[in-house]
Each structure stands twice: as C-alpha cells, then as structure tokens.
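Q: My labmate handed me this sequence with no annotations at all. I'd like to see what the chain might look like in three dimensions before we decide whether it's worth expressing. Could you predict it?
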Amino acid sequence: MFTSSDALHLSAAIGSVAVIIGSMERLAMHRHLSDGALASWPVSTTSVAMLTRRPFQRSAGRLLAYPRVLGLVAVCLACGVLLALRPSSVFNSLAAGMIAVTYILLSMRSRFGGDGADQLTIIVFASLALAFGIGQERANEIVLWFLAAQVCLAYFTAGAAKLVSPSWRSGAALPGILTTQAYGHPQAGKILVRHRGIATAACWSVSLLECGFPLALLGIRPLTYALLISGALLHIGTAVLMRLSTFPWAFVATYPAVIFCATGTGM
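A: Here is what I predict for the chain of 267 residues:
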C-alpha cells in the first residue's frame, strides 16, 4: 500500500536533492553573493522598498548580509541532507519549514536568476512542513491533493502559453533557446537549426505533454505513469541541455502526490 505518509516522505526525499544541489551551487559560487558582486545584498536592497526598512534590516536583513547568508545556505543544506537521508525524522517539519523560509529569503535577496524550480521548491516544502507538523491523515491527503493540483496547473499553464506562442508553434523556440549562451547547448542547437522538422515536432511535443499532464489525475494508471515518465524525461533533458540541474528534482518531488491522488492508496 502506498500511504499518504509514504507519498509525503518520498516527496521530501526527492525534493531535498534539489535543495542539496542548489545549496552546494550557492556555496561554490559564494563570491557572487559578496558585497562587491552584482548579486550583493546592498544592491539587492534597492530593488524593493521594504528591504531598506529598519525593522527588516535588523531582523531578516542581518541573515541575508554577506557572509552570514552563507551560514543560512549551509543550514538549508543540512536540512536537505536530513530529509534526503531520513525523510521520516522527528525533525522533518522543522527541516522542511527551514528550507521553505530560506528559499523565500534568498528569493528576496536576489530578484534575478530565479526559476520555476525555486518557486516550486518553496511550495513543496512549505506544504510538507504543514503536513508533517499536523501529522494527521486528513491533513496529509489535503496537502497531497494541493501538490498534485499545483504541478498540474504549472504544467498546463506552461503548455498553454507555448501553444499560443507563434515561436513554439512554428518550431523556432527550441532552436532559439538552445543557441543562447545562458541556456544553450551548441551541438543540440545546431541540430535543431538544421532540421526544422525535428525542432517543430519537439516544440509541439513539449507543449502537448504539458497541456495534457492534468490527465494524469484521471486514475487511468497506464496513462498516469506514461505522463509521469514523459515529464521526468523532459526535465532530465532540460537538465542536460540547459544546465538547469534542480528542475528534475523539484518537479519530480510532486509526482508521489500525483500517484497517490490518481491511484488512491495503492500503487
């Protein structure tokens, strides 16, 4: 039997990998967070008026200043390791809550360079903290349905946006993305530029997969698992080609919720 607790613990373990990767990347590139860097805290405070107010600066602002922010990231990393190794730990609610709060604070510190994986990580771990903290079956089920609905909404809106985009319908989007410096892959980009038929098929495949993902909740197990496998492969491809290493883990962390909601209480 695949219980609600099993689904929550599996989500925590999978999502923690995204947290570990993201935290290690921040610690490895800590110089980008220093006061002399573009992503410095003094620069970031000028983007939102609330960040310059004295009450905020005396509380959360102290944690976000360099080098204290590295300690915050290190604590987040430790929480991620704990949940990855022991998702059923008695400290799981505190650890999940700490991860969610850290990601919120880091998003306030740097308003640029974030992505959907960071946003979904906040949603996943805030939800897990709530479920772990309450510790009741009904709360578990509500959180799992929320996460399943959230990821279905995320996929559908992304797919719908692509379907109304001329560049995605024409097949120009993926070649354009993969030939950029930030998210590009030279070899893959050249292949898609040369073979527009492949590029068009790939663009439509991604769009239709994302729009059709909510069908996973219909309870048709072969369809559910086919969509989940396709979604996971999509994110693995994104990680390899676009170097978005946290995307697979952040999104796949919601898949246990989809499985639980689509199949009831059994695999």
